[in-house]
Specification:
single chain; 389 residues; alpha+beta; D-Maltodextrin-Binding Protein, domain 2; 36% helix; globular
């Protein structure tokens, strides 16, 4: 898997492992030794049937992830469990849909008491799912033995927090990421902008967008995620990084207050108004389309968007020349990146010159699972030294 030089990620994307109920007809047959997973798939006699699901599919979205699961992870896990005397059969069922559609599907599964034995969600969804009582902490689902896993010592607490809520671990994080401004060096060169561009302020970003619009009217100068259709990308790739660039956070831990109409929030909203208002520096249609985010990826890869705020997932899995969703053969030569600058030098959160936002997903055990302990074995295996190195 290709990794961006400024971030090391262990595994990318969401996993789902389903075995939430045996087929009633099969379980009523006393002569059968086979078990079935939650989808009704029959496992070999004497083994536990599990289904592994991810928002990835061979030949489509997150192809590398799907290929890894099918060709490496699952065979290795099954072999290890066979050797340990506990046969397991794991079936991978890929999705490859829009992230919000994936979220909706697992929400429906969980709320109906079904779904997967093990599944992964974006860290930003954990609190929402926990408060909706769709998920439970690992200790509730599996037991106190999860706290004895030596893998926790290898994961920094700040990364563990991606999959925590109210001080409880809900899953094992798969890594973390960061947000930057990706830009097309060829478009910049035609606009007379340097290929090593590093803006000092948000105003310099907007000024670069104006220069590009004037020199290349057929190019969208900047893609700043906005709107409901973009889902968490609007939050993590748009609003929160800009708010941090203004020197503020969305929530004050000391006062337990959410940020409202503060000067910093107004400053961020004014930036959105500049991009999508009268100046027309961004494409508002992309923000309301259900496939807007994926389309923005495609347009960037085709040289139709000059700047795009995204996480390193964009570099690793979207414009990856070999297996990206929107591959760019010349990615390494054409695509540059810059830090998201503060609105003023030293004005970003913590007195820094630049801001970012880190998130990431992880893997959970479904509270509806009938094979929670085996699901936990898979989670441990996925995050073992042998699997991540």
């Amino acid at each position: 898997m290709t990794r961006h030089p400024f971030l090391t990620a262990t595994l990318v994307g969401a996993l789902l492992l389903a075995a939430c109920g045996d087929d009633d007809d099969e379980s009523s047959d006393p002569t059968s030794d086979a078990t079935t997973d939650g989808t009704g798939t029959e496992a070999p006699a004497g083994s536990v049937g599990l289904t592994l699901q991810s928002n990835s599919i061979k030949g489509g979205k997150n192809d590398q992830e799907a290929t890894y699961f099918e060709d490496e992870l699952i065979p290795a896990f099954e072999a290890a469990m066979e050797e340990a005397g506990t046969p397991v059969s794991v079936e991978f069922t890929g999705q490859g849909v829009d992230d919000e559609d994936y979220k909706t599907q697992i929400s429906l599964d969980l709320s109906s008491g079904s779904g997967a034995d093990v599944f992964a969600i974006d860290g930003i969804w954990v609190g929402e799912f926990a408060e909706a009582e769709y998920i439970e902490s690992l200790t509730e689902t599996v037991g106190d033995t999860v706290d004895e896993w030596d893998g926790w010592d290898q994961i920094p607490e700040s990364v563990q927090s991606n999959m925590m809520f109210d001080g409880e671990r809900y899953g094992v994080p798969s890594g973390t990421d960061g947000r930057v401004i990706y830009f097309n060096k060829e478009i910049f060169a035609e606009a007379g902008l340097p290929e090593d561009w590093q803006p000092a302020t948000v105003d310099e970003v907007l000024e670069a967008a104006r220069t590009i619009k004037e020199s290349q009217p057929d190019v969208t100068p900047i893609q700043l995620n906005a709107g409901v259709a973009m889902g968490e990308a609007t939050t993590m790739q748009g609003m929160l990084p800009l708010l941090a660039a203004a020197g503020a956070e969305i929530y004050d831990e000391e006062s337990s207050m959410w940020t409202g109409a503060t000067p910093e929030m107004v400053q961020v909203l004014e930036t959105y108004a500049t991009v999508y208002g009268d100046e027309g520096l961004g494409d508002p249609d992309l923000q309301v389309r259900q496939d807007g985010r994926d389309r923005s990826f495609l347009e960037f890869s085709e040289g139709k968007i000059a700047m795009l705020l995204e996480s390193d997932y964009f570099w690793r899995d979207v414009i990856n020349p070999e297996a990206g969703v929107a591959p760019m053969e010349n990615r390494d030569e054409v695509v540059g990146w810059a830090s998201i600058p503060g609105y003023e030098p030293g004005g970003a959160l913590g007195g820094n010159d630049a801001a970012s936002m880190s998130g990431g997903g992880g893997f959970l055990v479904n509270p509806n699972s009938e094979n929670a302990e085996m699901a936990w074995e898979l989670l441990k295996f996925m995050n073992s030294k042998e699997s991540v190195t």
